[in-house]
Amino acid sequence: xxxKRTYLDPNAISRLAGMEVAARLVVEGFISGMHKSPYQGxxxxxxxxxxxxxxxxxxxxxxxxxxxSDRYYIKKFEEETNLRSYIxxxxxxxxxxxxxxxxxxxxxxxxxxxxxxSLTYLMLKQRDSVGLVTFDDRLKTYIPPRNxxxxxxxxISELEKSSPxxxxxxxxxxxxxxxxxxRRGLVIIISDLLDDPEKVLRSLKHFRHKKHEVIVFxxxxxxxxxxxxxxxxxxxxxxxxxxxxxxxxxxxxxxxxKIKNLINEYKNGCNASLIDYVQIDTSVPFDYAxxxxxxxxxxxx
Length: 301
What we know:
Elements: H1 10-15, E1 35-51, H2 63-69, E2 73-81, E3 84-90, H3 108-125, E4 129-135, E5 139-146, H4 149-161, H5 170-180, E6 186-191, H6 197-209, E7 213-220, H7 222-226, E8 232-236, E9 243-247, H8 248-272, E10 276-281, H9 286-299
Parallel strand pairs: 3-4, 3-6, 6-7, 7-10
Antiparallel strand pairs: 1-2, 4-5, 8-9
């Protein structure tokens, strides 16, 4: 029996030290953190004064300003808040693929789990709330966003129990999830996106319509990107188990054209909806890929 991986890699966490997952858009929350809330309220960061109006709470009057001006002014504060994040992990059958069985390269699923565990650790470390959603042709697991050290163990344990299996139905699942998540936050999709891009993009726009910020990690194996096959090859669909034997040279040009178009369609569609699109090759160590993305994201804040 194959030993189950431990997805929280101490070496990777060490290399990711100092990285932040900061919200670019307005989020909602209820504890002190590093992200701005859309709500005004008593908190730690002063914004400005405004003149006192009947009905204002007396406790917010700045008495020092009153002593200097003999006028009543109210202190306004910008509430700081935690980020509520949802890691949405594809556990469909195609995620179990890895092209080089003899190497240390990861399946797309294991790669996605390592990404999920690292992101969970980083966000909990910065006092944000993290939840986990797994799906294939339906929602399988829904762990609501929470924070604290014990929550890290809960999410890592769920990742280690999960495995790729059934067919995928991305768009239906995302629409259902968008209806379920009420409070605005950050939705992080980790998937190979092997589904109808038009439908998937519409479902991603549903998250944006609900005012969520969205990041899409599009995880693909190098063989899916380069099609390094020669001669007569037996291809098997990992979700339907259907098989096809074909001369690779006949299929190669058409396949490469289609995978290029698929990636471009996702990239352009996400950019048009202000969704971060990150295409990742599983031959690149996951911590390097994540570090490069977060560094770029934080430079663009």
